[in-house]
Write a structure and sequence with these properties.
By secondary structure, the chain is of the alpha/beta class. The protein contains seven helices and six strands. It has a six-stranded mixed β-sheet with strand order 1-2-3-4-6-5.
Length: 200
């Protein structure tokens, strides 16, 4: 459902806000990569967790591929690495005029797998392969159960998105919807999607 809603031009501003908030960067330009949506129907259901794949240009002019996925409770490291490889290698299918660039993934878990106590962590792995532009592979991990809203007095945009994605506190969801117009827009689009599904 999220894949269908977010992979549209109507939702590109939502994706921009999610990525800026979670990665704590500023984005100058953003465009959808078509590969994830095109390949989704060919992937087995237990491999089909990606919800967005975009190409961005940061305010310092660095270009990045960014992929966002939800992960279930089996083979976590393998799925993180396989998803990274899928998003990174998909660049080979694009117009040859576009430069091959670094890839960053955002991996969302609704359970605790890693031992870190914060709800988010950045993991980097050095790589010596020539086709990787930089020395580091970057994986951003969000463990939703580690997010404790009662310990926060002020919600930054990252906390707003994590609270919404965790989805276990309606009062908190209503609050972040009122504070973040992009969360409100996504929530409205998802509600409209469900209405259309029921009508069909």
């Amino acid at each position: 459902m999220l894949r269908k809603v977010l992979n549209s031009k109507e939702s590109i501003d939502i994706l921009k806000d999610i990525i800026e908030s979670i990665l704590e960067i500023k984005i100058k330009t953003i465009e959808l990569n078509p590969y994830l949506y095109k390949k989704a129907k060919y992937l087995p259901s237990d491999e089909n967790f990606g919800i967005a794949d975009v190409r961005i240009t940061k305010d310092d002019n660095e270009e990045l591929n960014v992929g966002i996925q939800f992960i279930d409770g089996k083979y976590i490291p393998t799925k993180i690495l396989m998803y990274y490889e899928q998003i990174h290698a998909n660049q080979l299918e694009h117009d040859e005029k576009r430069e091959f660039c670094r890839t960053i993934t955002i991996n969302i878990l609704d359970f605790v797998y890693f031992s870190f106590k914060n709800f988010c962590k950045k993991i980097k792995i050095q790589c010596n392969e020539n086709f990787v532009k930089t020395e580091e592979l970057e994986f951003n991990i969000i463990q939703l159960p580690n997010f404790k809203s009662d310990k926060l007095t002020k919600f930054e945009e990252k906390e707003q998105w994590v609270a919404y994605l965790k989805g276990d506190n309606q009062e908190l969801i209503n609050r972040v919807k009122s504070e973040n117009k992009y969360i409100k827009k996504l929530d409205d689009l998802l509600e409209d999607y469900w209405k259309q599904e029921k009508m069909e």
